[in-house]
Amino acid sequence: MTAMADRDVRVYEVGPRDGLQNEAAPIPTDAKLRFIDLLADAGLLEIEATSFVSPRAIPQLADADDLMRSLDRRPGVRYPVLVPNVRGMERAEAVEAGAVCVFTAASEEFTRANINMSIAESIDAFRPVIARARGLGWWTRGYVSTAFGCPYQGEVGEAAVVAVAQELVKLGIDELSIGDTIGVAGPGDVRRVVHALDAAGIGVDRLAMHFHDTRGTALANVATALELGVRCFDASTGGTGGCPYAPGAAGNLATEDLVYLLEREGLAHGIDLDALLVAARHVSETLGRPLATKVGQAGGWRLP
Ligand code: HMG
Ligand code: MG
Fold this sequence. Notes:
This protein is an alpha/beta fold.
């Protein structure tokens, strides 16, 4: 298995968190743990494991503490967790999570629906979280959701994305993940937002892109972001995903579809596609639904 430094592109797996958070039927913790193990077997080095949020807000991830305690953590693999406030950080500290993500958005209405805060209040809530995480030497990420469109407000301008991104950078966050929460962006939007961030001093080396594939544009957006120099992409094995507070959002970009594209582009990603498809099939069996992703159905492609 290759180390992070030998990879051209980081594939940041969000399946166990974003992929499962919106599933109505409770998924046994053991099935989630198995999923995470299979993802690590496939060579993923960053696996967003769960969220330390209110169990009333996201019932599916109410087992977060147990899951993190039971996780067989592999050396060299990072298992970030979502944390919205100090309470969440305390839970993350109790299980020595080692990597945390805070999450806000570029639109006020989504932020209110999702975390019951204004954008400014969210930054205030994150300040002590990030200070504690940095004090512990933990890796930190900040999500900017609805960067291309909001389910409540509609179009979102790049100035709003830049404004919240700058506040997150001021907190000392390592990486920003720019989210197309409801899957409305096209390549031109990606260019517009990445250029605006760059012009504001936030270069592509600080960015990840997080595409939901609601309207089938996720891979086109990845291709554009690659040309712009972005080198980290969020994806969900099996293509599941969505946020209960983002009506209309469908699954994340599927990790297997992303990996296939990277393979064809000759970019080192360190992931074994066949092993990844084992993890994808595990998700599909766990959820009792057929695997709907392109590469999940077709498989990879090699000369016989
Ligand atoms: P609130 O109701 O405003 O806060 O929720 P509160 O402080 O009044 O707390 C309400 C209850 O939650 C209380 O319990 C607290 O103790 C408890 P009660 O006394 O009523 O029994 N509570 C907590 N419990 C456990 N862990 C905590 C915690 N904090 C409070 N950390 C809050 C505010 C932020 C807590 C809530 O709105 C929440 O948890 N929201 C999370 C929503 C969420 O996880 N959304 C999905 C992730 S974001 C996403 O998917 C987008 C992304 O993928 C990127 C993209 O696609 O764009 C990242
Ligand atoms: Mg998401």
